[in-house]
Amino acid sequence: MPEVLLDIILLLVLSGALRKFLGGVRAGMQPRTRTDRPRPSPPGTVHMERDPVCGTFVVPDRAVALSLGRERIYFCSQACRDRYRAKTA
CA 89 to CA 83: how far, in whole Å? Predict the structure, then answer.
């Protein structure tokens, strides 16, 4: 009898975990809406941009920048900037 009770408890715990997992997968698959905004940064943090070539995060004030029209793209080095230029040219 105790074995059956333990099996039932285990089944309930596993079904609850599976339900939470599938709920997270379902929420992750839903398209984002315009009301979804990035969370504000905590005080004392620095805004960083991602280098599109190597993926390194850089501080815009210290990064190598490239202006394309109204858009500014930030790079960790001149080599990454040159690779980006060669790829888009």
Answer: 10
Per-residue pLDDT tens digits for 24-48 = 899 888 887 666 677 777 788 888 9
Please name the residue that has the structure tokens 């990035």. 38
- Name the maximum alpha-carbon separation found in the chain: 74
Phi-psi region of 73 (alpha: psi -120 to 50; beta: other; left: phi over 0): beta
Provide the residue type at 23 as one letter. Answer: G
Domain positions in the chain: 1-31, 49-88
CA 52 to each of CA 20, 37, 62, 76, 88: distance values in angstroms, whole numbers, following the listed order: 35, 22, 16, 10, 12
Q: Give me Rg for the CA atoms of the chain.
A: 24
**Coil, helix or strand at residue 17:** helix
Q: Which residues of 33-43 are buried (b: 16+ CB within 10 A; e: fewer)?
A: eeeeeeeeeee
